[in-house]
Amino acid sequence: MIPVVKSLSVERALSPSADKFLVKKPTQEQAEEAVRTLILWAGDDPSREGLTETPQRVAKAYKEFYKGYDEDPEVILDRVFEEVDGYRDMVLVRDIPFYSHCEHHMVPFVGKAHIGYYPSEGVVGLSKLARIVDVYARRLQTQESMTAQIAQVIEAALKPRGVAVLIEAEHMCMSMRGVQKQGSSTMTTQYTGLFKDPAEQVRFFTMVKSPGL
Ligand SMILES: Nc1nc2c(ncn2[C@@H]2O[C@H](COP(=O)(O)OP(=O)(O)OP(=O)(O)O)[C@@H](O)[C@H]2O)c(=O)[nH]1
Ligand SMILES: [Zn+2]
Fold first, then answer.
1. Label partner for 145 (CA 20 to 30 A): which of 49, 73, 139, 212?
2. 114 is a catalytic site residue
3. CATH top class, domain 81-209
4. Cα(21) to centroid of ligand 1, in Å?
5. Which GO terms describe its biological process (predicted)?
6. Which residue is catalytic, options 71, 103, 168, 170?
7. In the CATH hierarchy, which top-level class contains the domain 12-65?
8. 122-126, long-range: CB within 8 Å, 24+ apart, which pairs?
9. pLDDT tens by residue, the chain, 213 residues
10. What pTM did the predictor assign?
11. What ligand 1 atom has the least distance to the C-alpha of 178?
12. Could you say which DSSP state residue 25 is in?
């Protein structure tokens, strides 16, 4: 859940999934000023030559890192293909790479998502599953909420007989700072419908980890 930013006036929805948390978006100038403050906080001089254009670049990069706030996953999953000649077995898209930022430190966590589902009324374009991963990855959240949100939106849009989402990632907040445990990875899973059955979970996991192309 995204907390209300009380110091900002109620004006603009932060994201489609957070309609009730309305905040005013700062101007480009305000964003750049905030970056200058952080450069000072780091101990450097924002007016030295190498750093003068940095605030502008960081503000631009943030637009890319967090563009998921401007995207609606339900629109992405809008198109369902019903003609699949009776295909009913699992559809699995695995090894979808993503870059995200944890909401606790705003430091990257990087990994792969695997999404499986059993179709009922139709199938969705395969690329759309990867796009859904990016929508949530490009917002601030925890790995757990990202996993749950991906499963929920597929469930709502496709009404499949079951959805399985597995995410594995390395959190830079655990490797480059804090506890400093390089190479540890975190796995999260969310299962609905048929995937509540442990045998289905084993099948999903076996397919995810089977040798690739
Ligand atoms: N559950 C969960 N925790 C996360 C995620 N990303 C970062 N964290 C953790 O968030 C926690 C924040 O803990 P705090 O004690 O409030 O902050 P901190 O002092 O910076 O913690 P340390 O990382 O232990 O130095 C840390 O344990 C992080 O490892 C995530 O996606 N899911
Ligand atoms: Zn973190």
1. 212
2. no
3. alpha beta
4. 24
5. one-carbon metabolic process; tetrahydrobiopterin biosynthetic process; tetrahydrofolate biosynthetic process
6. 103
7. mainly alpha
8. 122/80, 122/81, 122/82, 122/84, 122/158, 123/80, 123/81, 123/84, 123/87, 123/91, 123/158, 124/77, 124/79, 124/80, 124/81, 124/154, 124/157, 124/158, 125/79, 125/81, 126/91, 126/93
9. 333 333 333 333 344 455 545 678 899 999 999 999 999 999 999 999 999 999 999 999 999 999 999 999 999 999 999 888 889 999 999 999 999 999 999 999 999 999 999 999 889 999 999 999 999 999 999 999 999 999 999 999 999 999 999 999 999 999 999 999 999 999 999 999 999 999 999 999 999 999 988
10. 0.89
11. 25
12. P
Closest CA to 56 of 37, 33, 40: 33
- Mark whether 149 is an active-site residue: no
DSSP state letter for 177: S
Going from the Cα of 12 to the center of ligand 1, the distance in angstroms, rounded, reads: 29
Q: For the chain, give every domain's residue range.
A: 12-65, 81-209
For ligand 1, atom 19, the nearest C-alpha belongs to: 178
